Amino acid sequence: MVNDPNLRDRLASDLERRKREAQQAVQQTALWQQVLGDGFNDLTADVDHDLRTRFRTVTEDAERQIDSCDPTAHWAEIGNDVENAIATAVGDNFVWAYQRSEALADDVARSFADAGLDSVLSAELSPHVMGTDFGRLKALGRMESKPLRRGHKMIIGMRGSYGGVVMIGMLSSVVGLGLFNPLSVGAGLILGRMAYKEDKQNRLLRVRSEAKANVRRFVDDISFVVSKQSRDRLKMIQRLLRDHYREIAEEITRSLTESLQATIAAAQVAETERDNRIRELQRQLGILSQVNDNLAGLEPTLTPRASLGRA
Fold first, then answer.
1. For the chain, what is the mean pLDDT?
2. Taking the complete model, does pTM exceed 0.90, yes or no?
3. In the chain, how long is the greatest CA-to-CA distance?
């Protein structure tokens, strides 16, 4: 049994199997890097798309509010609503990004178990890592257009009515009526009212366009700053997760390497002891063979002496 060649082959086969298992386990530790990289690529794209969608919704709501009123008379209210909506959108986006980051951390932790390794603890992320500071963000700018005053309304009406009075008055003077007569005055009132309505409509279109442009510019400025902050914070989370799981992977790799080295050393020691045992047995076998040879050489000498005694 000591010098059994089949035993030697079985031991060598078992050692090679353990080597392969250890090497495969070490290779499987790289799976978490793929899960983390792919997960953060998807997370960054999803968070950016979510933020853009929220900002677009804020802009559309603000434009509907602008179209329903005179923005010069309600600009403070519109600005307050837009700023609150932006703050809510950014906060909700950052909370969602934090929740997605936690879920990704759990996915990376499960990748170790899926690879056949021991389960590991998920990285702990602080909610403050996705916080933001709105102190550096600009408020919604003021409008250059001002509310229409009563005196301006009268000027617009008088300008339109004066043209109507002069035109109709000159025509009526042909039939002997004066410049100012009930017909010309009535025409002036009608034309003045029409001019006022037209000017009011044109002014509303102009100030609403200005208000919408201010809102879009404000949202674009916020989007530029917040998008950069969001990307920076996601990169920070990615580094935290990478460092956390890399330390775990290195510890697992070190443990597997030490286990493999211990297995190889034990196999080498067992083989050395077996070889030493074989040599010892061979030495003892040689001694026994020599003793047997010596005994065999003594037998012819002992036989004549025994015969003489009997005589």
1. 73
2. no
3. 198
